[in-house]
Amino acid sequence: MKPFYVRELSVYPVGRRRILLLAVAVLASLVANFETTLATILPLLMTDLGMSLTVYGQLAALSVLVGGLSAGFGGILSDRWGRVAILVPTLTVTAACNFLLATVDSVAGLFWVRCLMLFIEGAGITITASLVRDFSPRMGRAQAFAFWTWGPVGAAFLASFIAGFTLPLFGNAWQSQAIIMGVVSLSMCAVIIWKIAEPSGALRAQVMEAEQELAVEGEAGHGRVRELFKHPHLWAHVLGNTGWQVLYWTFTIFGQTILATAFGMDAATANRVVALGIVLNALAVVIVGRASDRLRLRKPFTAVGTVLTAAALAYFISLIGPGVSTGHVTAVYALLFLFMGVAYVPWMANFSENAEDVESRLQGSALGLWGMVVRVMIVVMLIVSPRVVEAGGWQLWLSVALAGQVVFLVSMVAFKGRWRAARPQGVEV
């Protein structure tokens, strides 16, 4: 028997029903990212626990590694047992763990709570991506993934917004934010439990080019995960994009720190610059996703976005130092986030489609493998980047991130998919 909250569809939803289920999957992505957010209270937490940045880096690295292992296994299990059966408990239990976080009074306690939270959350995030794929035919896949990326973006914005207004009300006690995050997350989980559904295994196995009310009965069986390992172009996707993600996660984790230490911005100004970049990125992914879907092209958008990102990053590195105006830095930083948005969403659609063509029943496993490898990279980054910055400043580490962009660009040679729009039938060459 399936849990009470599992609603399995044997007919592919269309129209408003599909859009609603896609919106619930995006909401689940936001919750999964929001309920583990620590950036808004990290300075207060470090002061209260007497924790250095180096110690936090080591703690974060180990807990992210735990989350990476969970992401890999969570994706595989979601293909076998269903998305919702695993997603709902992971979201709910992680939300409740925020109340446990509020009781932490030592570095060791923080470490164990974060490991627990990220182990549960790791599976949840990859499953939300799988659900987005399940409810997005290929003709709308890039735009659907664009909205999925609003999960981490929206989570960062929501956490900062809440902290900005409520921290002063509670005497800047970081525990207040943990409790508020728990309450807000559980409230959103209630909405998800009420509305969420998923296609049956047989329906998930279908490759949907366009929206249609397809009915499928019976079982599809389970694909073999090792089938994914036999295809070099899938490894090119995973490893190449992991190189691309070095820059994204550098800015996600250290963005304000880079702006403050390399350009002398105060904390408030740095946060405003980062916020502008996030807004432009959120707009870019939707616009580019729609264009990519209309043209049914993925690789040209990814290539152009990556080249522009690399060029903007090289210029950003050259600016590091005294005497550069805040407006100048803000413009370049904003363009970096804009160009990253151009590259990312078409790539996600391309990877999803390439994995789908190999074995449509293993979409969760493919996304889980990618999520696991990216998290291993984050672990390495958290350990290595402080030492690199110590030795050569942020210029040196951002040069490493620039090399990651080049690796991603080269890996695109192996991706499957067209570089040009298909010619209309009946047109002579």
Automatic annotation (TrEMBL):
Q: Which UniProt keywords apply?
A: Membrane, Transmembrane, Transmembrane helix
User: Where does the Major facilitator superfamily (MFS) profile domain start and stop, copy by copy?
Assistant: 20-419
Cellular compartments annotated = Cell membrane
State if Membrane is listed as a keyword: yes
Major localization class: membrane
A single GO molecular-function term is:
transmembrane transporter activity
Which superkingdom heads the taxonomic lineage of this protein's source?
Bacteria
Keyword set includes Cell membrane: no
Q: How does it sit in the membrane?
A: Multi-pass membrane protein
Enumerate the Gene3D superfamilies for this protein.
MFS general substrate transporter like domains
Any single GO CC term annotated in Swiss-Prot or TrEMBL for this entry: plasma membrane
Report the transmembrane regions from the record.
55-77, 84-104, 110-132, 144-167, 173-194, 246-264, 270-289, 301-321, 327-347, 367-384, 396-415
Q: What is this protein called?
A: OPA family glycerol-3-phosphate transporter-like MFS transporter
Q: What is the lineage of its organism?
A: Bacteria, Bacillati, Actinomycetota, Actinomycetes, Streptosporangiales
